[in-house]
Design brief:
The chain has helices at about 1-10, 20-35, 45-55, 130-135, 165-175, and strands at about 60, 70-80, 85-100, 100-115, 150-155, 160-165, 180-185, 190-195, 200. By secondary structure, the chain is α+β, with helices and mostly antiparallel strands. A hairpin with a 4-residue loop joins strand 2 (about 70-80) and strand 3. The longest helix has 18 residues, at about 20-35. About 40% of the residues are buried.
């Protein structure tokens, strides 16, 4: 996952982080964009791109993400200048991962926040995971979560999210083509929020 962000750094994006108050501001900004572009549309990448374009976000050259070893395919990305040196980014693409030994293809709609004035190893939105936990009110999925990543699975019933508290329930939802995942990813120098629709290859 971090390789993707090393690609983004080629544009001069370094991820933000200073005082705790600013961290909370960063998390709120990221979540605001994520909810509008990705979550409100149930992860529909085409709709997210349309919304970004209508808000005059600028396209990021596809070549930035076409590097060997990138975990994403068919990436489309847009950026938006925020206050000061802050920069938001929308990323739409496809991620292939292994879940319980099975290859899973996941269309992804994600947002991240960068700071062109911060050092490359700065820390961004330290309270982001807590903000997402409180917003969803769900239990993280063990098999989708790893070091630096926390994932929540759910299905949609009459437009409402219904949390999945076990990996067995998530597997059943995935086999039925109904598994939705919202995840946060944090490492040194990067943070993002993702909406994924998991399906077996």
């Amino acid at each position: 996952m971090r390789r993707l962000f090393l690609c983004a750094m080629a544009l001069g994006l370094a991820v933000a982080g200073t005082a705790q108050a600013r961290q909370s501001d960063h998390s709120r900004l990221m979540m605001g964009h994520f909810q509008t572009l990705c979550a409100d549309n149930n992860g529909d990448g085409a709709k997210a791109i349309q919304l970004a374009r209508s808000a005059d976000w600028a396209p990021i050259p596809a070549q930035v993400f076409q590097q060997e070893g990138s975990p994403f395919d068919d990436v489309t990305a847009y950026m938006n200048a925020e206050e000061g040196e802050l920069m938001s980014m929308l990323l739409v693409g496809t991620l292939t991962e292994t879940y319980e030994g099975v290859a899973v293809t996941m269309p992804v709609c994600a947002t991240l926040l960068g700071d062109m004035g911060a050092p490359e190893d700065a820390v961004l939105a330290t309270d982001l995971q807590m903000v997402v936990r409180d917003w969803l009110g769900m239990t993280p999925l063990r098999s989708f979560s790893d070091e630096g990543m926390e994932a929540f699975g759910f299905t949609l019933q009459e437009g409402a999210r219904r949390g999945l508290s076990s990996d067995a329930a998530a597997m059943q939802a995935m086999l039925n083509g109904r598994l939705h995942v919202i995840a946060t990813k944090r490492e040194d120098g990067m943070a993002m929020v993702m909406y994924m629709r998991a399906r077996l290859n």
